[in-house]
Design a protein that fits this description.
315 residues; mainly alpha; 80% helix; globular
Length: 315
């Protein structure tokens, strides 16, 4: 198991380095000059060269890239062109907002979809299965941002359960911050809940028809015992992979949900930084999103290896 984890960790580091180079190269090739955007076209050549030197843009490409790569491991992404402060300090609060939102949404997905998926699989064809199937089809057809608008209208404007646009910082009121994030978290989670229920139900029914399940049933196991002792362990594997994909998608989908609920998270900063060509901030944000996806993939692989020893043996 230790060798498997080390192998996956080395692969993660290599992927991170390659991804960081691609990100840095893309922004190097983007047309435009952040110095001219900052000073304007009427700036004197002396001022332009002075600011270019101050920002380190007069250094060769690979020197700047290795400085960027070093910053990844030391958490030092340089200074923001727009805000004139450390990118790390600038993003620290935004990261907390998006991580809490993603964890809350993912928790809703897991604690709702897994029990419901098992229940409808056990009672397939029944009334509950038909109701859940109808709700699944409806939920999967509604995008998260549309659901966010509906939640804002119903629970914010009609029922007055929260104030639309009234974001509360976790620094001033932690309980108010968590309560406010419940609504965008639900908007993020509902479509994913529907997909997860459908996937888990299908996997359970498929595994229940295999030879090992029939043999276990013939040896005296009842339906519940067969499900929890034999079927669920195999049926849950694709669901774990899907939940990992959902976790990676949460950080990206959260960028859109931020706009609906007026949350000052990574999404708003990413959009404003792109418009002002604040490349250190944009590069750090894109890299953080990529790193988050890599870490989720790494964690999913480790969970697979823990649950199913065949994964370790194959690798």
């Amino acid at each position: 198991m230790g060798k498997y984890i080390i192998k996956k960790l080395i692969l993660l580091i290599i992927t991170l380095i390659v991804t960081s180079f691609i990100i840095f190269l893309i922004f190097e090739l983007v047309p435009g000059d952040p110095v001219l955007d900052k000073l304007g076209t009427r700036a004197t050549p002396e001022k332009i060269e002075s600011l270019r030197s101050q920002w380190g843009l007069d250094r060769p490409f690979f020197v700047r890239y290795f400085s960027f790569l070093k910053g990844i491991f030391t958490l030092n992404f340089g200074m923001s062109y727009t805000y004139g402060m450390s990118v790390t300090a600038l993003l620290r609060e935004k990261i907390v907002i998006n991580l809490v939102l993603s964890v809350m949404a993912l928790s809703v997905v897991i604690f709702v979809s897994v029990p419901l998926g098992i229940y409808v699989a056990k009672h397939t064809g029944g009334f509950a299965d038909k109701v859940v199937s109808f709700l699944n089809q409806t939920a999967m057809s509604v995008p998260s941002f549309v659901l966010g608008l509906l939640i804002t209208f119903i629970f914010g404007m009609v029922l007055k359960w929260f104030r639309p646009g009234g974001y509360i910082s976790y620094k001033s009121d932690l309980s108010g911050f968590l309560y406010f994030l419940i609504f965008p978290a639900v908007a993020l989670a509902v479509p994913k809940i529907a997909m997860c229920i459908r996937l888990l139900k299908g996997n359970i029914l498929e595994e229940a028809l295999k030879d090992y399940s029939m043999t276990a049933y013939a040896r005296g196991n009842n339906t519940t015992g067969l499900l929890y002792r034999h079927v669920l362990k195999n049926a849950i594997m694709p669901t774990i992979t899907f939940v990992g994909m959902v976790a990676a998608d949460m950080i990206c989908s959260g960028i859109v949900i931020e706009q609906v609920f007026s949350i000052p998270g990574l999404g708003q900063m990413l959009i404003s930084s792109i418009s002002t060509r604040d490349y250190p901030v944009v590069e750090a944000l894109v890299l953080m999103i990529a790193l988050f996806i890599m870490v989720i993939s790494f964690a999913t692989d480790i969970i697979h290896a823990i649950i199913d020893p065949r994964v370790r043996l194959q690798n």
